Amino acid sequence: MPLLVWIVLFSALGGIASAALAVSFLWIPEARAARLLPHFVSFATGALLGAALLALLPEAIARAGVAGAHAIGLTLVLGLGVFFVIEKLVLWWHARGDDEAALEPQGHQHGGQHSHAGHSHRDRASGVLVLVGDSVHNALDGVLIAAAFLTSVSLGLVTTLAVAAHEIPHRVGDFAILVQAGFSRPRALLLNLATGLASVIGAVAAYYGLREALGLLPYALAFASAGFLYIAVAGLIPGLHRRADARTSALQVILISLGIAVIAIAEYLAGE
Predict the structure, then answer these.
(1) Residue 38, domain member (yes or no)
(2) Residue 148, Cβ density class (10 Å: 0-12 exposed, 13-18 middle, ≥19 buried)
(3) What span, in angstroms and rounded, lies between the C-alpha atoms of 48 and 6?
(4) In the chain, count of helices (H) and strands (E)?
(5) Which of 96, 172, 213, 234 has a CA-to-CA distance to 63 between 20 and 30 Å?
(6) Predicted confidence (pLDDT) per residue in 193-206, tens digit
(7) Looking at the domain assignment, is residue 41 inside a domain?
């Protein structure tokens, strides 16, 4: 199968199929879904850490060689900084939207009731932000998947697994925000799936860009590693600390370890 077909298929799997799988939570009772999602987050944390430190970063260093190890380290630091800035911009934009909504006239009291226009505007702004943020996020995921496949099919498969693992719980949360913002469930689902197309677009663009500059591939892998590390350490792990009881903590450690083990086993089998 041509490499571009692999990249398109698996970037679609990481971006679109993960959104479709997330929809399965709609048929699970809310209380049970609330209990299951943190387990997915724990597993995704391990998968991201494993993909970053056991697959992407070692491959980047191996390809760059000893002479390029310092540049790989700089790329890793730069990547962490880029993802930090992206998150800051999204948070700033979100806060700005909330501030503007708060300054809008809230309407006159009528019969002891307040108009909810301001609240609706705020919710709608949150929904739009989710769609924009998801599109950017998915485009970056597509770039990471393409860079991995350009290295080897096995690394591409491992990277796609890590992307899909963290996208499923992420998409469930985004779906809830879109529904709260006033979108109907079918429309929220359609928009959630549509943002997954950005993953394919990012992957195809990266394929043509990196194929013409293969010398940049080790640094693209290091950047991908930085992205996975940032998502795991800054995005997922803080949420896991909200539950600190012994049973939950032990289960988190087991599931994180399982996520790492799955990536390690996949890497071992790929090397056989």
Answers:
(1) no
(2) buried
(3) 21
(4) 12, 0
(5) 234
(6) 888 788 899 999 99
(7) no
